[in-house]
Amino acid sequence: MQPAPEVHHDVVRSPVSAGWFACGALVGLLSVASAALVAHLPERMLAAGGRESLSSAVQILGWHAAALLASALWLREGMRRLVHLAAACFLLGTLCFCVGVAVPALGGPHLGRLAPTGGTVLMVGWALLAASTWRRRSTPAR
After folding, report:
1. Per-residue pLDDT tens digits for 54-80
2. How many domains does the chain have?
3. Residues of the domain holding 41
4. Residue 113 forms part of a structural domain
């Protein structure tokens, strides 16, 4: 039987980890508040199909709040530069995607390629987070 992994109680004490953790918590808060707003907005305030579009944005907010929290915790273990880049992609991609979806859903102008660009940046973030788990070994595995 293998021993239990060591728990790092100071993982969120570094200013950078704490910053990404705070971003994740705030995006999570925004996700819950947005979900409540979407559920209660009158139809007259929405463009055609707006509620479904806003629900998609809320879902992206929730998933990427969790991704930011995970990134903050992974900073201690992973390849730090890649984790920082992943977290930055999660934050920027979430902002671009959600604004690009929400503005037209609320009757505002279409914002061009903002939502698809945000989605692409989010995918890059996930790829970077995955890459942060790959460590070079100094000795071959046996």
Report:
1. 999 999 999 999 999 999 999 877 578
2. 1
3. 17-131
4. yes
